[in-house]
Specification:
Number of strands of chain A: 0
Number of helices of chain A: 2
Number of helices of chain B: 2
Helix content of chain A: over 70%
Distance between the termini of chain A: 21 Å
Structural class of chain B: alpha+beta
CATH architecture of the largest domain in chain B: 3-layer Sandwich
Strand order of the largest sheet of chain B: 5-6-7-8
Oligomer: heterodimer
Bound molecules: FE2/S2 (inorganic) cluster
Shape of chain A: elongated
CATH superfamily of the largest domain in chain B: Rieske [2Fe-2S] iron-sulphur domain
Helix content of chain B: 25-40%
Shape of chain B: elongated
Order of helices and strands of chain B: HHEEEEEEEEEE
CATH class of the largest domain in chain B: Mainly Beta
Amino acid sequence: MTPTPTRRHGQQAIIFVALLLFCLVLVTIQLWLFVGSLEAHLRGNRAMSIPAAIISATVFGLNAWMYFGVRRIERQDL
Amino acid sequence: MERRLQEEFPVSWVDDDYVTRREFFRFMTLASGGLAVGTAGIAAWSALSRESRSFDPVRIASRAEMRAGSSLAFAYPRSTDLCLLIRRPTGEFVAYSRRCTHLSCPVDYQPDHDRIYCPCHNGAFSLEDGHVLQGPPPRPLPQIRLEFRGDDIFAVGLMRGEA
Ligand code: FES
């Protein structure tokens, strides 16, 4: 049975909110990484900054992928 | 009233909400990009900042002047930068900045514990590389690079310690 457009829209909205919440969690992790690596750098410990930058860039890639994925699905729906 | 409002502003509330969420998603993605760039900037700053800097050599003392387990205060590289030259009981010479990395109290050598001690908040630093042994200091003490020319001891540069 194919879902009706309204039901489909509702499902999409739920997925959208779930992705948005996930994105929020990821951004919070990035914020924590940013503050942590800044503090470590000022403390004189520089071992952490490169891994933190790599993880942060990966998280950004994931966020961008989710965002463009949502945009693509929206455009397909139009 | 509501009908009139709908006629004058024909916006679907559900869709409007959806657009707002999408914009929020875009904003979060941009914020994520900003944080990634910021963290990369800190990594670049860490990689590029220099471990050690050289200054004009300054004679501090002669070896003979210092007995084992003693210390001597001097200023380097500027006259306001107080430092401490230490001759450890083993005979080895080391020199560190005298300014505690916590709240800048002057630190002192403790020969009986073979460490550098800050009396303000009970902080202590190692004589090996200046790392923090105890107390609130957040960073190691900067180390002064020494050079020996004949019997004379010269300060030639400043090294930053790793935490
Ligand atoms: S100023 Fe040295 S421990 Fe606080």
